[in-house]
Amino acid sequence: MSATVTFDNQVTVAGTGGPVLGDADFRFLRDFVLQHCGIALSDQKRQLVQGRLLRRLRALGLKEFGSYCELLRRDPDSELGDLASAISTNVTSFFRESHHYDLLEQTLLPQWLQQKRRQGDRLRIWSAGCSTGEEPYALAMVLAEALERHGADVDAKILATDLSPQALAGAREGVYSIDKLGGVSAERRRRWFLRGEGSYEGLACIHPRLRELVVIQPLNLLHEWPMSGLFDAIFCRNVVIYFDKPTKERLFRRYAGKLVAEGYLFLGHSESMHGLSDDFDLVGRTVYRKRPA
């Protein structure tokens, strides 16, 4: 095992020359991430942060974590997305937590489409923290099928947002390896994916019809939200798990303000709103409905 040699805040691992995250730099990063991303990093996350940010140092040609911290001080917005992407775990898949999609398909969408068609209103769903696009495209499959099934001439769209530029690039590309389609039924694979050939063998591309339904935009949930209209449902799954309690409370309050009367908020399987908001009622497994005014 190599020894660690420290000179003030410049830390390297003897025998490797690789930088190690010093106390002052870790404190700065922890405060920065909490302020700009709402992510609370405990002392136990220090090695994880060090390991993941080493890749950013290499990509940027930086030799020390101090230089990286200085970059964040000078121009925080330029690196914020890459930093958040590096320290968070983007695990996603098509039709993850399938009971949410079942509720949409069997109950909510038929009701909404009937109502929207009668009132001439629009239908909007927000995938907040869309990662590489599996969630919004799965939502688009269910929505497209519902529009066909119920013959609804309704202005329907899905907004997909994320802070990570790499994740958004993947979502916009809409190309996935075949082994990533495990949650998609054989019928939906045939209907909603274009199978690659030749050099694209083993890949599948999202059908253009689904692309029409999904609008992909960068967004930091802690910053200003430019959307002017309200949403019928918001999917924010496996996102708030990273946030501290005050950030969760503020976020749930803001979500309530962006939902229509009795709109729905979907959280991840390990997330809960218990003790964090009086604006919602639990109506299903990690499914919450906005309380009437």
Automatic annotation (TrEMBL):
<dbReference type="InterPro" id="IPR022641">
    <property type="entry name" value="CheR_N"/>
</dbReference>
<dbReference type="InterPro" id="IPR026024">
    <property type="entry name" value="Chemotaxis_MeTrfase_CheR"/>
</dbReference>
<dbReference type="Pfam" id="PF03705">
    <property type="entry name" value="CheR_N"/>
</dbReference>
<dbReference type="InterPro" id="IPR000780">
    <property type="entry name" value="CheR_MeTrfase"/>
</dbReference>
<dbReference type="InterPro" id="IPR050903">
    <property type="entry name" value="Bact_Chemotaxis_MeTrfase"/>
</dbReference>
<dbReference type="InterPro" id="IPR029063">
    <property type="entry name" value="SAM-dependent_MTases_sf"/>
</dbReference>
<keyword id="KW-0949">S-adenosyl-L-methionine</keyword>
<protein>
    <recommendedName>
        <fullName>Chemotaxis protein methyltransferase</fullName>
        <ecNumber>2.1.1.80</ecNumber>
    </recommendedName>
</protein>
<keyword id="KW-0808">Transferase</keyword>
<dbReference type="Pfam" id="PF01739">
    <property type="entry name" value="CheR"/>
</dbReference>
<keyword id="KW-0489">Methyltransferase</keyword>
<dbReference type="InterPro" id="IPR036804">
    <property type="entry name" value="CheR_N_sf"/>
</dbReference>
<comment type="function">
    <text>Methylation of the membrane-bound methyl-accepting chemotaxis proteins (MCP) to form gamma-glutamyl methyl ester residues in MCP.</text>
</comment>
<dbReference type="InterPro" id="IPR022642">
    <property type="entry name" value="CheR_C"/>
</dbReference>
<feature type="domain" description="CheR-type methyltransferase">
    <location>
        <begin position="21"/>
        <end position="293"/>
    </location>
</feature>
